[in-house]
């Protein structure tokens, strides 16, 4: 069953202008990760410091594997350096 993950980011004010480029650089690895069906970056029209990553994964296990990878030294990104606080992850499944 596919999983849709929403990762909400709040960007530090001094990085708002470069955030999307930085995020897209990090997402090259995400998009190539086994089980990733795609990632969209959406920016709040009223608050450009509020960015959400809409990720689609083949299974919860592949999403879990990706999160575990990002927690390793090899998978660590510099995304945290542009954030104003910790990201919030919410995961959903589609109900038919």
TrEMBL record:
Keyword Electron transport listed: no
Keywords carried by this UniProt record: Monooxygenase, Oxidoreductase
InterPro entries: ABM_dom, Dimeric_a/b-barrel
GO MF, one example: monooxygenase activity
Keyword Nucleus found: no
Signal sequence region: none
Annotated ranges, domain ABM: 3-95
Name by which UniProt lists this protein: Quinol monooxygenase YgiN
Organism the protein comes from: Herbiconiux ginsengi
């Amino acid at each position: 069953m596919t999983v849709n993950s929403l990762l909400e980011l709040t960007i530090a004010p001094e990085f708002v202008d470069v955030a999307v480029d930085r995020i897209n650089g990090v997402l090259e690895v995400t998009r190539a990760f086994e089980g990733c069906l795609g990632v969209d970056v959406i920016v709040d029209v009223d608050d450009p410091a509020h960015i959400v990553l809409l990720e689609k994964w083949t299974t919860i296990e592949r999403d879990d594997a990706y999160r575990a990878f990002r927690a390793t030294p090899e998978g660590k990104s510099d995304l945290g350096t542009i954030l104003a606080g910790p990201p919030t992850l919410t995961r959903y499944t589609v109900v038919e």
